[in-house]
Write a structure and sequence with these properties.
The protein has 15 helices and 12 strands. By secondary structure, the chain is α/β, with parallel strands linked by helices. Strand 3, helix 4 and strand 4 form a beta-alpha-beta unit. It starts with a helix and ends with a helix.
């Protein structure tokens, strides 16, 4: 801790000169990483080679050009993607992200992870994902709307309540989902709220959806603490990411009296051994943006790299993929990693963490609360009957805890990690579905 503390002090002094940068592509190809994770589990399961071939391929990938007229009259052309990994268990389901760094193999990996996630929760859904290569912070609201509407028109034949249901992800929100719904509905000649989830409540959205991923993380954290005989309120938590997922789990923990000692966003993070005032930081984020500019308390500034290595009880990576790798896995100083992001840990890092006896609660279980409540929203839209928040949270807890208990049981019985156990359950269900449906023609 002394070494990290020195780094924090130095970074605090230099925070004025910090230049914010975001890598356009990760060091490790996420789709290759996703396939590697699958191969590890397939080998342990003795999975039939034909099933492996089937599940390692993407059903369909759509790449589209999105030309829009900018406010100054210039034409800009952006690239967008929508990928279906598997629809063998139901319509595709997965988010849509707007990011300068998004690329096809990232979207393929995210779609594959969505397949495993939905199968693990036993939802009647497949896996899909989408993205547009754009920095939305550089667009006006009108430009963002034109981009979203044109992108929707380009992918309209591969989305729909019975085909693929997009949802918010990085840099997308209920307003963007509302524009997608409107374009789709205008083409169909009627209102179709079930085409997307994560919509505003006024047009068919669900209460509890915006905080669902964070709420689900909290339920899983409670469950793993109970299994490990840990007192949650005595733990120290570090969270990488302060957006929808990281911000909401931080808020829930703070309200429950749990000490969050560090959080971060793209600009870096803030650290205090005695605990951060999360309510104050969320208010700052919503009004002023970046954590690097926060000055109202004497917190230490820390880089995202160093934040991962702070001594804590639970580390929650809740930003993007490929954050915990073989280069830093030996330096982590925590008991539990609760994956709030998709694919934050590489297979090589998993091996190191297992040897170090650090428990990793995998993404396809830990952060599945978002897609679970998205499914509830989808069901409510189809039935035109909407639930109260108490029911949403209770149904969410029931499904999350049922999945957790099943994963924990298989992990103990098979003597495997929680990730491998979760994959075994998800893949087994997909295997059965493929066998029952057969291969067309």
């Amino acid at each position: 801790m002394k070494i990290i503390y020195k780094k924090l002090v130095v970074l605090t002094e230099k925070v004025e000169d910090l230049e914010i940068k975001e890598s356009t592509k990760p060091d490790k190809n996420p789709f290759e990483m996703a396939k590697m994770q699958f191969d590890i589990v397939a080998e342990k399961m003795g999975l039939d080679e034909n099933i492996s071939k089937y599940l390692k391929r993407i059903e369909r990938s759509l790449i589209v050009s999105i030309p829009i007229i900018m406010d100054n009259g210039d034409l800009e052309v952006f690239e967008g993607y929508r990928v279906h990994h598997s629809t063998v268990r139901g319509p595709g389901k997965g988010g849509l992200r707007y990011s300068e760094g998004v690329f096809l193999d990232e979207v393929k990996a995210l779609a594959m992870w969505m397949t495993w996630k939905n199968s693990l929760l036993n939802l009647p859904l497949g896996g899909a994902k989408g993205g547009v290569c754009v920095d939305p912070s550089k667009l006006s609201k009108k430009e963002l709307e034109r981009l979203t509407r044109r992108f929707t028109a380009e992918i309209i034949n591969v989305i729909g309540p019975d085909i693929d249901i997009p949802a918010p992800d990085i840099n997308t929100n209920p307003q963007i989902m509302a524009w997608i719904m409107d374009v789709y509905s205008m083409q169909k000649g009627k209102s179709v709220p079930g085409v997307v989830t994560g919509k505003p409540i006024e047009i068919g959205g669900s209460v509890g959806r915006e905080t669902a991923t964070g709420r689900g993380l909290y339920f899983i954290l409670q469950a793993i603490c109970e299994k490990l005989d840990l007192d949650l309120k005595s733990l120290k938590i570090v969270i990488q990411g302060f957006g929808n997922v990281g911000g909401n789990i931080a808020k829930i923990l703070y309200e429950e009296g749990v000490k969050v000692i560090a959080v971060s966003d793209i600009s870096g993070g803030l650290f205090d051994e005695q605990g951060l005032n999360i309510k104050e930081l969320l208010e700052w984020r919503d009004k002023n943006g970046l954590l690097k500019d926060f000055y109202e308390r004497d917190y230490f500034f820390v880089s995202n790299k160093d934040l991962l290595e702070i001594k804590c009880d639970v580390l929650i990576p809740a930003s993007i993929e490929n954050q915990i790798t073989e280069s830093n896995a030996y330096n982590l100083d925590c008991k539990v990693i609760l994956e709030g992001a998709n694919g934050p840990t590489t297979p090589e890092a998993d091996e190191i963490l297992e040897r170090r006896e650090i428990i990793v609660v995998p993404d396809i279980l830990a952060n599945a609360g978002g897609v679970c409540v998205s499914y509830f929203e989808y069901v409510q839209d189809l039935q035109s009957y909407f639930w109260k928040l108490d029911r949403i949270n209770q149904e969410l807890r029931n499904i999350m805890i049922e999945a957790f208990e099943e994963v924990y049981k298989i992990s103990n019985e098979k003597k495997v990690t929680l990730r491998i156990a979760a994959y075994m359950i998800a893949i087994s269900r997909l295997k059965k579905a493929i066998e029952l449906r057969g291969i067309f023609p």
